[in-house]
Amino acid sequence: MSPRSSIECDVVLALVPTFVDDEVAESVGGTVRRHLMDCPACRAVVQEEQTMRQWFVPGPEVDVPAGFAAHVARRAFAGDVGQAPVSAPQLEAAPDRPGGRVLAFSRALVAVAAGGLVAVTLILSGGDRPAVGDLDAGKNLEEALSELEAENLSLELKAPARRVEGSR
Predict the structure, then answer these.
(1) Is residue 14 part of a domain?
(2) Which residue of 6, 13, 83, 154 has the fewest C-beta atoms within 10 A of its own C-beta?
């Protein structure tokens, strides 16, 4: 492909959403259609975009109040992130609020459980712990493996004798 066609493909791919929505000028639309006749890659992108658009069913028109966009823009530039601020009274578990008694009980239960965990941790940490030397088996790996093999072999030799005795 020539560099001109790759630039043309880039331009066409940038115009695909507006082309599919039929929002381009007729002269631009004609240029895009001529390119799509010669370029199967761009044509596939347009077909994929058209297929995807079929999944979305347009809903009823919504009346937007006058000045809504300007109001949103002012709030956005002022640093509003779109979430209502939560004040401390809203977080309190007042018994007269729905679920307030359950929330207060749950908080008390969590506090008691946390205190219990701290107590258990302190009790366990005060006990004797083995030293590093106590954990050493005193053998190297080869010696330990050979002892395990000997033990397994002796168990295998005893196993048939046990089966014979058990079958009588």
Answers:
(1) yes
(2) 83
